[in-house]
Specification:
- This protein has 367 residues and is α/β, with parallel strands linked by helices.
- The chain folds into two domains: 13-194 and 353-366, Glycogen Phosphorylase B (Rossmann fold, 3-Layer(aba) Sandwich); 206-347, 3-Layer(aba) Sandwich (Rossmann fold).
- It has 14 helices and 13 strands.
């Protein structure tokens, strides 16, 4: 059972990391946890949405205790996950709570204790964003029902779903061009950390070691909206790619034209790429852009669209919809040289250690 060890010195802090089931959430949160451990004496416990044994193993192999949380269901009005999380919080008695999770509906009914709370979240999902997000759409459909559930638990009603990201510190793991607001003009409590770039513990295969001008399809754990092979071929041709490879556990059936890998060290692969095709998740997308490699984003949901639009405005990426890829590539062919210039400019804002910056901010709250 998690809890403070009576033999631990009284200045030992306890930090609860609440994360979503997507690999991007878990990967960057592991980086922040390691960075925090290197800065102060802290007992760290992860509470992760159940999303596969592999994710649980990533956390435990990194040396952290982990509790798997059930998902929110309306069948039990969210009681199972809410009770599990509130029980864990009471037993662990954290000095600080860190969240990197879609709060809707997972945190909808949780009564948090009066301790500092931190949210690591991309800027376009917060009050700074203007594009419609997944959270906005969920609230339009379920908001009234969810507010009734909150009332039953003695929680105040909510008008703006983005308020669920409010915390003592809101940490933005983005480049400034994506945030859209200079760091010195951010609202109180908001802090620009820069991207947290995580790589899996995997080696680079010999056939990729010497490769150049690759087209990489890096769709992440949420990238299931794969383009047809004809589209992939066209993108590779327009980008001047030498060959095409793909990272991901789901094989879309491209055959021998696209070499499939379950795991690769993305940061080393993107250095050998001409272009990277992502689903618009921050993990894979920022990994490419930090190396100065442009991206084409084929979104799986509205949050991916929000990021891709900002990258397109910055001249470092292209938003390509699954339904209209033929018309888009015909009307606006990929100008790889222009995209490379935009990606290099954006890369200059990303040469920071976002996890270290996040840990510094958290350590300041705990001091």
């Amino acid at each position: 059972m998690p809890g403070r060890d009576a033999g631990v010195a009284c200045d030992m802090k306890s930090v609860l990391f609440i994360t979503g089931a997507a690999l991007g959430h878990i990967g960057r949160s592991l980086l922040v946890a390691r960075a925090l451990e290197s800065r102060m004496a802290a007992t760290i416990h992860f509470a992760c949405l159940a999303g596969g044994q592999h994710y649980e193993n990533l956390v435990s192999e990194a040396g952290f205790a982990v509790t798997l949380l059930p998902g929110f269901t309306l069948r039990d009005q969210g009681a199972t996950i809410t009770e599990a999380l509130e029980t864990l919080i009471a037993e662990f008695d954290p000095s600080l709570i860190y969240c990197d999770i879609n709060p809707l509906p997972q945190l909808l009914l949780v009564r948090f204790p009066v301790v500092p709370r931190v949210f690591l979240v991309n800027a376009y999902e917060t009050r700074l964003g203007t594009d419609t997000t997944v959270q906005d759409l969920m609230w339009r459909e379920y908001g009234e029902q969810w507010n009734r559930l909150r009332e039953q638990r003695g929680l105040p009603p909510v008008d703006d779903p983005r308020s669920f990201f409010d915390a003592d510190l809101v940490l933005l793991p983005d480049p400034e061009a994506v945030v859209g607001v200079p760091a010195e003009r951010l609202p109180p409590g908001y802090r620009l950390t820069g991207p947290c770039i995580w790589d899996p513990p995997a080696s680079l295969p010999p056939e990729i070691e010497e490769a150049r001008d690759l087209l990489l399809l890096s769709m992440g754990s949420t990238g299931i909206n794969n383009l047809p092979l004809e589209a992939v071929r066209d993108i590779g041709r327009q980008a001047g790619a030498s060959r095409i490879i793909r990272i991901g556990s789901f094989d879309p059936g491209y055959g021998s034209e696209v070499r499939q890998y379950d795991w690769l060290p993305g940061s080393r692969v993107v250095e050998r790429c001409r272009l990277v095709l992502t689903q618009g998740g921050a993990g894979s997308t920022y990994q490419a852009l930090r190396a100065g490699v442009p991206v084409v984003c084929t979104p799986a949901h509205h949050n991916h669209v929000a990021l891709a639009r900002r990258l397109q405005q910055a001249g470092a990426g292209m938003l390509l919809f699954h339904e209209t890829w033929q018309e888009q590539l015909q009307d606006t062919p990929i100008d790889i040289l222009a995209l490379e210039r935009g990606a290099r400019l954006l890369s200059s804002q990303m040469q920071v250690d976002g996890a270290a910056n996040a840990a510094d901010a958290m350590a300041g709250l705990l001091a």
